[in-house]
Amino acid sequence: MTALDFTPAAGAAPRSRQVWAHATTEASLILRNGEQALLALVIPIGILVAGRFLGSRFGLDFPTLAPSVLALAIWSSCFTSLAISTGFERRYNVLERLAATPLGKSGILLGKATAIALVTGVQLVVLLGVALVLGWRPGLDPVALVIAVVACLLAAGAFAGLALCLAGTARPEITLAVANLVYLIGLVGGGILLPVASHPAWARPIISLLPTAALGEALRNGTAMTLVVLAVWCAGTLVVARKVFRWTS
Amino acid sequence: MLHHGWRYSGDVPPPSVVSARDLRVAFGSRTALDGMSLEVHPGRVTSLLGPNGAGKTTFIRCCTGLVEPDAGTLALFGHAPGSAQVLPRVGLMPQQTGAWSQIAPRQLLTYLSKLYADPLPTDSLMTALGIHAFASTPYRRLSGGQQQLVNLAGALIGRPDVVFLDEPTAGLDVRMKRSVWDLVGRVRDAGVAVLLTTHDMHEAENLADDVHIIDRGRITLQGTVKELTRNGDLESVFLAHTSPAEADA
């Protein structure tokens, strides 16, 4: 073995450096994972392309479908990917290991939030580019833009809270199955891809209270009331996650 | 630089870096720690020797702030476990895994080094532990022994004052085990406080300055190896002071 000086000289790196190191590491792992890439980009791009050329046959016009796909991207990253990755981090003691570094629990959460923001940002840029190439021309009403941005932030918080509630309590295999199932339910019946108005009348009041539908409607129509729904979900799920999340499996 | 020359009977021990008094932890109806008291000193290897389910891992989790004791006091460097003053000074090698399945050792160690102000040089550490040969191999494809070496490197990279090694040589072949023992000895000689859990008598005899036998969440016997083996070998002493194994704690 070569000479190494193990004399204690402990000290933490600056907080921003720690969080950035975690965020870039986790984001690179997510983006390199085939299953995550499928959720993040392949499925949304497939829906965009299919919707552009076949959507009218199913009553889906492209100006409605494009913002719906952006909402789907946030749903997949902030809920499904986060739940699955966190579930396995618990199983593999990654969280336990990192909680004993200068990052601590709060740094891990900050780092994960930044990582998911980076992944979602990459997704949105790519999907926005594809949608524009396919002919989407979004309106530039400043109020609608503000509502869209705030809705995205609140929805990201709400979905992350749901993800942590699931991943922090269930076994990773259960988390994997439930996260994928809930992803599909949200996609098909949760008001993400299909507008609330396209569902049966009896189901609309229920669906419109879901965070998935609120995000979808906010991006499609700029409805301000959706922000209230999202804010309640965001606060509620994060509070519950804080109470129920377990760091070890 | 400190050396492990002092003994309780003669020299005055340096102040403890970990001080636990009457710790009690229960998970539902199961008692994990039942009035455990323990001191860990710099420049000493303190071994926590006990059967599966005795409470060894739970004690480490208390020290890293992941489990909050129901009663008793626990301080590291005079501060609360998991606090910002403590975390940079701690190194942890978890019992199993402790890394993302798809990350390569070089990426993991580079990431961990960025969390500390003055980390050990990653390349030198990898050379010292013989990690270079598999530095680019995903963690999940490493053998158990290789994973253990990476985890040990991760525990040491921040130049900690205290390292918690949870069964550090479990699954290692004889040569690797000797290599790890040699490294742990060098770390101790550099003045680092080492707390290692094991149920390997040979390891405790070879490595530990102080042995604490733990059974059902409480210390049943403690002393130096020499003191404990005055009237028989360590295995006999262990069997006389522990109960049959239960489920893992």
Automatic annotation (TrEMBL), chain A:
Spell out the GO cellular component terms annotated for this protein, sorted alphabetically and separated by semicolons. Answer: membrane
Q: Where in the cell is it found?
A: Membrane
Record's keyword terms, sorted: Membrane, Transmembrane, Transmembrane helix
Location, primary (coarse class): membrane
TM ranges are 37-54, 66-88, 109-136, 142-169, 181-202, 222-241
Q: Does the keyword Membrane apply?
A: yes
What is its membrane topology? Multi-pass membrane protein
Gene Ontology MF annotations? ABC-type transporter activity
Q: Which InterPro entries match?
A: ABC2_TM (IPR013525), Nod_factor_ABC_transporter (IPR051784)
Tell me the Pfam families matching this sequence.
ABC2_membrane
Question: Where is each ABC-2 type transporter transmembrane domain found?
Answer: 18-221
Q: What is this protein called?
A: ABC transporter permease
TrEMBL record, chain B:
Q: Which GO terms describe its molecular function?
A: ATP binding; ATP hydrolysis activity
Write down the SUPFAM superfamilies for this protein, in alphabetical order: P-loop containing nucleoside triphosphate hydrolases (SSF52540)
Determine if ATP-binding is one of this entry's keywords. Answer: yes
What's its membrane topology? Answer: Peripheral membrane protein
Q: Which residues form the ABC transporter domain?
A: 18-241
Q: Which InterPro entries match?
A: AAA+_ATPase, ABC_transporter-like_ATP-bd, ABC_transporter-like_CS, ABC_transporter_ATP-binding, P-loop_NTPase
| Protein keywords | Antibiotic resistance, ATP-binding, Nucleotide-binding, Transport
PROSITE patterns, per the entry: ABC_TRANSPORTER_1 (PS00211), ABC_TRANSPORTER_2 (PS50893)
A cellular component term (GO) from this record?
A: plasma membrane
Cellular compartments annotated? Cell membrane
> Its Gene Ontology biological processes?
response to antibiotic
User: Under what name is this protein listed?
Assistant: ABC transporter ATP-binding protein
